[in-house]
Amino acid sequence: MSQIISVEALRQRVEQVFLRAGMNAVQASPLARVIVAAERDGCKSHGLYRVEGVLRTLQAGKVSGTAVPVVDPAGNGALVRVNARGGFSNAAFDLGLPLLAERARDLGLAALVINDCTHFAALWPEVEAVTGHGLAALVMCPSYATVAPAGGSRPLLGTNPLAFGWPRPGRDPYVFDFATSVAARGEIELHRRAGKPLPEGWAMDAAGRPTTDPDAALSGAMMPFGGHKGSAIGTMIELLAGVMIGDLTSPEVLDFLGTTTLAPCHGELVLALSPERFAAGRAGDPFARAEALLEAIEGQGARLPSQRRFAARAKAEADGIALSDAEVAQLDRLLASGPDGAR
Ligand code: NDP
Ligand code: PYC
Fold it and tell me: pTM above the 0.90 mark?
């Protein structure tokens, strides 16, 4: 059984759950938008099931639902710094984006540093927001220690997502966005809930043995994607979006939270680059040259990353989103109970 609901109606319903839980509109509105965007685009690992995690984290007092982010005056030049003041990253990103875009257009390159935020969402909504300004984007953040470095056997790195976007005038941008672990941790949780074994090669149990049991994986360690390559990229993210920006690394986040059942708090790094400024004075229009490359990829029958997602979006915008009875019941329950009812 399922219920069909429009994207906008679902966004309003999720926002109501957050407002009812005591969050202010500054926090509730962007948070509802990104969670419903994930559900709309068929990214279940960061969709509706995260609503309960938000309420759990509020209930545990590990995030502020009423924070109002501020632009930190210490940021200047190419560096825009926003302090989320213990709230969710999404409101802080919305505050910093116009400044980031303005500086990237002026200087060719600018960075938005978000400090003291809780971040559990997919990164592509932020990447798409930057490409919407005609800029390329590179976004990254740590999470909490759940991934063993290549050659190791204990959780240390986070699932540390990395996302990139390139603006394509008149078309959807080129976007990739992935965990630097074999899969997002949210996928393991979804396998656990569905009672399904994991694919081989995703995780080790607490004794460091390969496992396909989601429970054993959740109390063991996940594997980096691509062996030493994913391990190195995950480490780079700890360094750039943790150490360098003066915020928590994934092991420090886990020490602070003491659990992976709450949403992680740390920082985030968003780089915006102007293709026109970088290519100025050189032969060829960067956007036209990019099209030639992307069309050649598709010309071989390969699909571009995010094509599945954009197709899912178009379908959801036209036909609505199908929610299972369990998903409807969960939203109803959380709307009635507020954070006290979060499991
Ligand atoms: P996936 O492996 O599902 O997808 C990764 C990317 O690869 C997507 O852009 C996807 O596009 C693309 N892709 C997948 N298959 C193909 C293919 N055959 N050809 C070309 N491109 C392809 O992502 P993950 O499970 O690693 O991550 C899911 C989400 O989890 C991300 O949005 C990430 O930001 C989020 N996350 C957030 C964390 C946090 O701390 N905030 C931590 C970890 C993950 P498409 O979507 O169109 O399939
Ligand atoms: O899915 O790996 C994940 C994740 C960690 C924090 C938020 N999402």
Answer: yes
